[in-house]
Amino acid sequence: MTDTAHPQFFDRFPMRRVRDAELDGVLADDGALRILFLWGRDCPNCDIAKGQMLLTPDRFLWPDVEWLHDNVYEDPTMATRFGLHGIPAFFVFRGRRKLGRISPWPGTAPFVAAIERIRAEAA
Fold it and tell me: At CA 116, angle to CA 111 and CA 117, rounded to 5?
C-alpha cells in the first residue's frame, strides 16, 4: 500500500482505506462529508499531490470531513466504477450522494477552496 516517494504518507496523514466492494457500506446515509482519494503507487501526479498535502497537512483536516483512500492499481474495479482516465482523483460525498470530483490535482489553495465551498454550502 505504500509508495516509494512518500512511504510515510498514510502514517502522517491518516485516511481510511476502502475497497470498491465496501465503498457503498462506508458511504452511509448519515450526512457526513467524505473525500475519496484515488491514487496509485509510484504515480508521479499522485506523488505531487501527496507531497503538497504533507507540506501543510493541517490545511486538509476539517472536523466534519472523513478521508478515504484506495490504490486503484491494486483495485481496478474502483477506477472503472468512477470512469477514471487519470489519477489522482478526489471525489466528495455527502452520505452516498456524490457532490463533486477534483481531478487533476489543482494545487493546495484551489483544492482547499473547493472543499471549503462544499462545506459552506452544506452548513
Answer: 100
